[in-house]
From TrEMBL:
Name of the protein in question: DUF1700 domain-containing protein
Transmembrane segments: 84-102, 138-163
Keywords: Membrane, Transmembrane, Transmembrane helix
Length: 181
């Protein structure tokens, strides 16, 4: 492999980036090659020091997706950032995907609990058909509905916190892979 084929492979792998960002990365790696060649290093040593183009591209794409998820907050962007971070290392399958799925299931349970508490007055109406027992349980029903409103406020805050925490964890995970803690 030579400089041109190395950079061509990186360009192909970095297609999801914008042209400006892709050209900037390729120029940076081209300068790495030029500097090492001027220092008299053989091409094989340069390539082995830089690493495989696929691993470099995966790391750059992970950083890009995390930055994109930070800038434009959506569940889709968060899933993309998690997916690309998992591709960086096979260990990320355990250290990123498992905690992400477990916490996502817990967050889903919190959403379900909130929906159940908010819909409790309707469920009691259906169950009791405005009978006398319905009016005896009115304070209980209102209490559950109020608890549902509080859970609704909480679930919004927890979701925002969860989003930011996942992004921080992905950045932390990438920094460990790069060797910086």
């Amino acid at each position: 492999m030579n400089k041109q084929s190395y950079l061509a492979e990186m360009a192909k792998l970095l297609r999801p980036l914008s042209k400006v960002e892709r050209d900037e990365v390729l120029l940076d790696y081209s300068e790495h090659f030029d500097y090492a060649i001027d220092a008299g290093r053989p091409m094989s040593e340069i390539i082995s020091k830089l690493g495989a183009p696929s691993s470099i591209a995966n790391e750059i794409l992970a950083q890009y997706e995390i930055r994109k998820a930070s800038d434009t907050q959506s569940f889709r962007n968060l899933l993309r950032a998690v997916r690309v971070t998992i591709r960086v290392s096979i260990l990320n399958l355990v250290f990123v995907l498992v905690p992400f799925i477990v916490t996502l299931v817990l967050l889903g349970g919190y959403y379900f609990l909130t929906a159940a508490l908010l819909s409790s007055p309707i469920l009691f109406l259906i169950q009791h058909n405005f009978s006398a027992s319905f009016f005896q349980d009115i304070f209980y029903i209102l209490g559950l509905f109020g608890l549902g409103l509080l859970c609704g406020i909480g679930v919004v805050r927890v979701t925002r916190w969860y989003y930011k925490t996942v992004l921080r964890y992905l950045n932390y995970n990438l920094s460990i892979i790069r060797g910086r803690t």
